[in-house]
Design goal:
two-stranded antiparallel sheet; 2 helices
């Protein structure tokens, strides 16, 4: 399982930071839960692209769930919606 550490990437909402972004792998698809994220920087997006590239090289598809509207808009505005699968 590929892990994403909150402290290395994202900007969180809430009172206490979490150590890792929640994820689960089902039928060759790795789902990451973004419900605690309030925004992503361009550097964060680049890291996600690297994660997807590495995962695909190992035959694992990546999808992001519970993505807030602001993050979705940023992904679409940057033309990354073809690469980053957000639900």
């Amino acid at each position: 399982m590929l892990k994403i550490r909150y402290t290395e990437l994202f900007h969180l909402t809430g009172d206490r930071p979490l150590d890792e972004l929640a994820g689960v792998c089902i039928d060759g698809i790795h789902y990451y839960d973004f419900k605690s994220l309030i925004f992503l920087t361009n550097t964060d997006l680049a890291s996600l692209i690297d994660l997807i590239k590495c995962s695909l090289e190992h035959g694992v598809e990546v999808r992001f769930v519970n993505v807030n509207d602001g993050i979705k808009r940023k992904i679409i505005a940057m033309g990354l919606d073809r690469i980053l699968s957000c639900d």
